[in-house]
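User: Hey, my collaborator sent me this sequence without any context and asked if I could get a structure. I don't really work with proteins. Can you help?
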Amino acid sequence: MAELVLALGSSHSPQLSTPPEGWAQRGERDKGNPELIGADGITSNYEGLLARTDVSRIAKEITPAKFQRRHEQNQQAIAKLGQALYRAKVDILVMVGDDQQEYLRDDNMPAFCIYRGKEVKVAGQEVSPGTGNRLLIGYDPQDRMAPTQSDLGRHLIEYLIEDEFDVGSSSFLDASRGGRAHGGIGHAFTYIYNRIMTQGIIPTVPVMLNTYYPPNQPTPKRCYSLGRAIRSAIEAWPQKARVGIMASGGLSHFVVDEELDQMALEGIREKSVVKLSQLPREKINSGSSEIRNWIVTAGAAEHLDMKLVDYVPCYRSPAGTGCAMGFATWS
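Assistant: No problem. I've predicted the 3D structure and written it out in structure-token form, which is a compact way to encode the shape of the chain:
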């Protein structure tokens, strides 16, 4: 019988792969975002957010020294997750991530979708020195194919349908239909291949969530229940295998909201569906919606204990925009 032996959680922001000297430039780009959700739950443009921000407090968070230190923390945490993955000797990794209209579009966007194909294309990333606008760290410029565990993917779909989760099913992933030139699997999963699987590719099962787009975003409670059901499905699979699960995404962004992050991490650590259900719904939209990926993983890893590897609030502009990076293991 299969066994779920490990869980991992990691942010996947492009800021993780941008040298610290490029962070302020990413902050400049935030000025063009018309839908920034502040820590007060109000959605506005950059100017509106700046007017409501304690700029003197944020000024202390966006110094070159802070950028450098937090960049180093991020890279160390990513390395620790990779080490944990290979130390656990998993045979299969279930990847939980969101699709941002890369593959799932408005013509068909299920709340949950599981991939049951035999492989996926991992699109190469341009690696070019000297600019903060491009992804520079840890990305392979070459397109490549990566194996998936289609038998487990199909089993998860069938089990979850019996468990009354109406999951979508896919046997072909090509994000080029979403406008990406190279196509391939979406960015939430590409991050795992490029930054976590550094010692060899492990067969995967991609699980896609609609975290971003109303009206069918799953609730935190439903996400936790899905995670529990995924674990049950894994344990019911008649193949002998060591299985891991990994959340890709989050935490709060594109405005850093440390209070929201601590609420989510506390609920996850305490395995409290009640606390996770109390997350302010107006705040878990946009980038912060990816906290749902962590909640699914927490539900699956309910039998394991969570260890927070690091929490790194990466501010990048005077208005407090940026991404709060989270890294965790369950074992």
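In plain terms: The chain has one domain: 2-330. You can pass these tokens on to your collaborator as they are.
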